[in-house]
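Entry under discussion copied across for reference:
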Amino acid sequence: MTVRSPQRPARTLTATRRRRGIAAVAALSAALAVGSVLPANAVPAAPAQDTRNSAFRQGLHDLVKQDKYPAVLASTTDRDGRTRNYAVGKGDLKTGAPAPVDGQIRAGSNTKTFTAVAVLQLVGEGKVGLDAPIERYLPRLVRGEGIDGRKITVRQLLNHTSGLPNYTEYMFTDVLGKARHTYLQPRTLLDIALEHKALFSPGTDWAYSNTNYVLLGLLIEKVTGRPLAEQIHQRIIDRAGLRKTYFPAVGEERIRGKHPKAYHAEKPGAPLVDFTELDPSWGWAAGQIVSTPSDLNRFFTALLDGKLLKPAELKQMRTTVPVPEKWGGKGVRYGLGVTRTPLSCGGAIWGHGGDIPGHATRNGVTDDGRAASLALTANLAPTKDGPENAVKVLDSAFCQK
């Protein structure tokens, strides 16, 4: 594991300043210097101020040693804005090269939060109505068995209460096989979904669906008249100062910067296959972004600090609905492109997380300014308990035992 020396990122809010920002929202009603890398079986001496992170640091090692993840990258930020980056395990199983500190990874469904921010910015600009039907912006496009765009609102797309079927359920096997290097247009993804009947009437239940965010990506392009990738970069990535985050270009299969290899196993215990290169177009507005653990912390911190959304839209984003425990865990709630997850020590974290072949990310930011992100270099875990243990390790970053 490698621990980067404490460093203050530019303009990170202190706990006091963050509380003032939260109070302002209430008043309106209511995602470096790189150190050396040590092998996974080496435990570096921690600086005195880092001893409270011992459970978290041990947890990272356990994810590699016991849960058999090839590598785990992580980043934490404390209340005073000090950031520490960690790398455990092998970045390349073939060569044995160590995992790079704060390397780039596919962020998967964290992309949904970026997309949601862009939509809510358009709401704040008066260009999109949060409770307007998607039909207003994409006329006659959303039609199918039990599916009618005149009855599905933008809000319902954002919080997964639209009832739209999830296109990835009908193509995931292809993505792992023959479609791994196939470019898929957003309309193709939508067509796959619309071949199937609605899951329920809009607003009557909750079901996670990547289809919702493909439609939101099409909404952004229609309203702005510009490509989604450009809007994500200009509205969010550049504004938040995310230097290692990008939306891959059409046909771009490789990861640009320093990164660990990504691996996939068909089931726990199956051989790990190198899945670093793939065409991520099937994720598009729902899952295409590449980032790093520290950039994900920086993004979610900027979001909660009110740097990306106006108070009214941030308040809407943080308005949540319950989700099935089997999906998110006990007490997890979903807002407009963000999750609220209870901590074992009280309070909660805001984030999203993401899974895409080869990578899994888990992250969260608290209202008092703390942040943590994990990036695992296999999304279908090598062991049965790996995903649950990763969530426990993330919790330990905020609730030291």
Notes: The longest helix spans residues 210-224. Confidence is low (pLDDT under 50) at residues 1-51. The chain is about 30% helix and 15% strand.
